[in-house]
Amino acid sequence: MGLRDDVAKVLISEETLRARVAELGQAINATYTDADCPFLVCVLKGAFMFLAG
């Protein structure tokens, strides 16, 4: 049994999610420079994949 077998319905498509993550990354880059980069703390399982990317 694979991961996809446990999912009844996909709420947000992969393409939509990737586009939104890219938008957020651009917004963060526009707001913060190398001199004042934010300190991010990962608190949810799986969220480290978002922070690591």
Q: Tell how many strands the DSSP assignment holds.
A: 0
Number of helices: 2
Order of helices and strands: HH
The global form is elongated
Helix content: 40-55%
How far apart, in Å, are the first and last alpha carbons?
A: 28 Å
What structural class is derived from the secondary structure elements?
mainly alpha
- Low-pLDDT residue intervals, each spanning 5 or more residues: none
Q: How big is the Rg?
A: 15 Å
Q: State the major sheet.
A: none
Mind explaining what this structure looks like?
There is one protein chain. This protein has helices at about 15-30, 45-50. About 45% of the residues lie in helices and about 0% in strands. By secondary structure, it is an all-alpha fold. It contains 2 helices and no strands. It has one domain.
List keywords for this structure.
53 residues, mainly alpha, single chain
Brief rundown of the structure:
This protein is mainly alpha-helical and 53 residues long.
